[in-house]
Write a structure and sequence with these properties.
alpha/beta; seven-stranded antiparallel β-sheet; five-stranded mixed β-sheet
Length: about 575
Amino acid sequence: MATAASKTMPDVREKTNLADSAMQSMATGEGRASNHSAILHDAVRLLQAGPRDLTRVERLLSLVVADLSAESATAYEFDRGAGLLRPVVTTATDNRARIMAESLPSDSGLPAEVIQYLKPCVSPAVNGERRTVAAPLLCSEEVAGVLLLEGVGKELQGEGEDLLALCAAHTACFLHEMRMQEDLSQSRVNLREQFMRAEKMRAMGEMASGVFHDFNNILGAIMGRIQLMQLKATDEEIKKALTQIERIALQGAETVKRLQAFARLRSDEAAQSTDLNLVVEDALEVTRHRWESQAQRRGVTYNVNRRLGKECHVNGLHSQLVDAVANLILNAVDAMEMGGQLTLETSRVGETCRLIVSDDGIGMTPEQVKNVFSPFYTTKGQKGTGLGLTVVHDIIVSHNGSVRVQSQPSQGATFIIDLPIFRDASTSVPEKPVSDEPQGLRLLVVDDDNIILDVVTEALEDAGHRVDCFSRGGEAIDAIGRSQYDVVVTDLGMPDVTGWEVARAAKLHQPRLPVVVISGWGAQFSDEQLTDSGVDAMLAKPFHLQVLRDTIEKLAKGEAVSAK
């Protein structure tokens, strides 16, 4: 169809068939001996030379320029998202840099008509001036780009159309292949990055496994000694201080558990009703050393504002949520090196409880906002690990919640967390009364960590039991062979003889002898694995001494307990 601005030529796809016939004709020597035929023959030889590349596309365009007596030809790729035609290759020499630097709008002029009608278009001749020819570059019935010929001196008809169709089809295939190669190259880069990330995670998991074991042993010893002191303390101030120390130690233990879960080492906890306001208070208490003590030593002030709503109970794990909020607080403090306002706000929003943590720090760019929850992504350089906000994201998602961030450079950041409400939050669940433990049980305890061994032994002896303690698994097995015990408590990871071997020896000597395994590796074993190894119960370090007492009591009574 024709317009006032241009006239359209026959469909390039129809002309491609004619061009194919011309190619066959020239290849067999049946073409007419003319200048056009020679150019077409050169085009056929060029296309048969091998794989397409940018240089060959430019040479092919040069043949079309020569055949149509044009000044230059430029191939543009169609960027649909931006609505632009971006230059890919041109035959221009004098103004090559300008042409290759300028993109054309796809919604005006000849390009718009070409894209709309999928046919070549020619600008009208004015006072004998040379014209402009535009042809669509079609791939799979879609416009991949536009071929633009400037200063065309011949009529676009007959054999000239054939060569233009041939050039357009070839260039469209080239653009398609080029894009596929770029996508393939990007896919390789993405796969390489994913592989490297997986390798980092695997290495971190292997390294962390041993570190977590050591930390759990240390925290187990600290908590055990605190709990023994709580039982014997009479001063209320001392009891209060011990309770605070225990809470911080528990927070450290839960942080280790979160890291173990992040490294795919454990996931064994059950959610419960959690007061989001208490989570905020505990998170502030855990991080107080950063935003108060250390800040005061640096002469910096952080104004912490609490805006806590009512009835903000969620279904979750208190320690994990404290860990998440503490990470957000520390992140905010890092963003305000010279001090500033830190605001924590809770409220009910429909069927969710919302927590907003905001600061007036340096803020983030759109790119940083996009990647802020990605593993190993950090804006802190050597000071950051790139895991803090990833842990926050994982914790919130594991609670069936959502977390998002709003930020702009120099305008602070706001993290918004939404968590499902706990519907039965108003109903308090009475604590199970601690029953009297059976007195005078004969117990065997083995652990290669002497501090934990002393704490456990003292706690069980205070409960009225007789305890034989050993620091080596081989000594414990010898004792089991010589004496009769009511319950065996063994550490899992020991250098000479493992807890598995102690458990098997106990069952071999006394098939009904209950065995409790305590482990710094975490509860990463299935009930079936524990049962098959002769283990009746497992406690992950650090554990509460009362939980150990209750477990021993049930096993001594012959009551069934979960293996972990």
